[in-house]
Amino acid sequence: MAEHPAYPVGLRLAGRRVVVLGGGQVAQRRLPALIAAGADVLLVSPEATPSVEAMADTGEITWERRRYADGDLADAWYALIATDDAGANQAASAEAERHRVWCVRSDDADQATAWTPATGHSEGVTVAVLTTDARGRDPRHTAAVRDAVVEGLRDGTLVAPHHRTRTPGVALVGGGPGDPDLITVRGRRLLAEADVVIADRLGPRDLLAELPPHVEVIDAAKIPYGRFMAQEAINNALIEHARQGRSVVRLKGGDPFVFGRGMEEAQALAEAGIPCTVVPGISSSISVPGAAGIPVTHRGVAHEFTVVSGHVAPDDERSLVDWPSLAGLTGTLVILMGVDKIGQIAETLVAHGKSPDTPVALVQEGTTAAQRRVDATLATVAGTVVAEEVRPPAVIVVGNVVGVGPAATRNPR
Ligand SMILES: C[S@@+](CC[C@H](N)C(=O)[O-])C[C@H]1O[C@@H](n2cnc3c(N)ncnc32)[C@H](O)[C@@H]1O
Prior knowledge:
Elements: E1 17-21, H1 25-36, E2 40-44, H2 50-57, E3 62-64, E4 78-81, H3 86-99, E5 102-105, E6 118-122, E7 125-129, H4 139-155, E8 170-174, H5 185-193, E9 196-199, H6 206-209, E10 216-219, H7 230-243, E11 248-252, H8 262-271, E12 276-279, H9 284-291, E13 305-309, H10 323-327, E14 332-336, H11 342-351, E15 359-364, E16 372-377, H12 381-387, E17 394-398
Parallel strand pairs: 1-2, 1-4, 2-3, 4-5, 8-11, 8-12, 9-10, 9-11, 13-14
Antiparallel strand pairs: 6-7, 14-17, 15-16, 15-17
The chain binds S-adenosylmethionine.
S-adenosylmethionine binds next to helix 9 and strand 17.
C-alpha cells in the first residue's frame, strides 16, 4: 500500500457517524474540523482533555466514557483511532477494515487506510496537502507547504485570480505609508487580481514592480486633465476602465479617507453606478511617527492626538483648521503636508500660548529605506527645516510624546 500515493478526496460528513477513539491531544486537534463538517461524532474514551470535554458538554459531540469495544465502528463512515493502547488501536483498525470504514491512525500511518492532510482555508477554498507516500511522510513539510500556499493566497503573492467571484468595479485600496509589507492582506490580494492599477506617488510603489506584465499601471499624477480638474480626470479614468469590465485598483498612500480624497472618488463611482470596495490602509499619521520611535499617545503624557493638514498657512482664508484652539490642547498634534508652512504654523501655535520649547519631530519618507527623523522645538523648527533640507513627504509631530521613546528607537533605519 505504501508504494502508491494516497487518493485525495473531500469527505462530506454532515449528519454521518464518525467514531473517534481516544480523547487526548490528537482528538482535540482533529475534532473542530469534524464538527465544522457537520459530522455526527461519537467519542469513545475513558478520559478526555478539558477542551474535548467542553465539546461534549456543549453537545457538539457525543462522549461515551469507556474503552473501545468490538462493534463500535459498525455504523461509522469514518474513524479516527488515537488511543494510547496499542492493542485497542490494532483491534479497532482490524474492525474498520472488516466494515470497510476509512480510518486514520495516529500511532501508525502505514497501517491507516486514510491520512489527514494539512489543511488551511482562504477565500472560499480549502487547501489540503498530503505527502505522496507513507515512507516519506514529513508532517512539518506538508504543514509548511500548506502555510506557504494559504499565506500566498491571502497576501496576493500567490496569484490565483477569482473567475466567478472577482471583485467587480473599483477597489479604493489604502496602500499604507510606503513599506510594501504595510499594505493589508486584502489590499494585496486585490492588487494581485487587478487588470488596471491607478497609483499615487506616495504609498507602496515597490509593489507595482511585482505585478504581472499584463497589468496596466497608471501614474495618477500623469493622467492628462485638460478641461477637468486633476481629481475629475482621475475619477473619469476609474469609471472608464471599470466600464470596460476591468478590475481596477486605485492604490492610495496611507488610508484612502485620511486626506486622500477617497470619498470624492467613491462618490463619483456611485454616481456612475460603478461598484466600489474600500480597503482601509495604515495611515502615515500614526505609523510614520511610530516607525521613528514616537507613540502618538503615551500614558501620563498625551491622552489625545489630533491629525491636521498643514497644506495651507494658518492665515489663509481657505484653512479649515482652528490653530488657536489647537494651541490650547495638551495632547499630540500630528501635521501632514506641513513642511512648507511649518514656520507659520509654529509661530501661530506659540502666539496662542503653546510653549516655544514644545518638542517637534519631522519624519521624512517614513517606513521606507530613506526614512529620516529630524528633531527641533517650536522655536527652532523653521530654521531646522531649512538647515536640514527636510522635504515632503514628512509627518510632523508636535508635543511631549516626541521625547518619550528610548534613544535607540529614534532612528531605527
Ligand atoms: C495627501 S496626504 C495623504 C495621507 C495618506 N492618505 C495617509 O493616510 O497617510 C500626504 C501626506 O501624508 C504624509 N505622508 C504620507 N506618507 C508618508 C511617509 N511615508 N513619510 C512621511 N510622511 C508621509 C505627508 O505629510 C504627506 O505630505
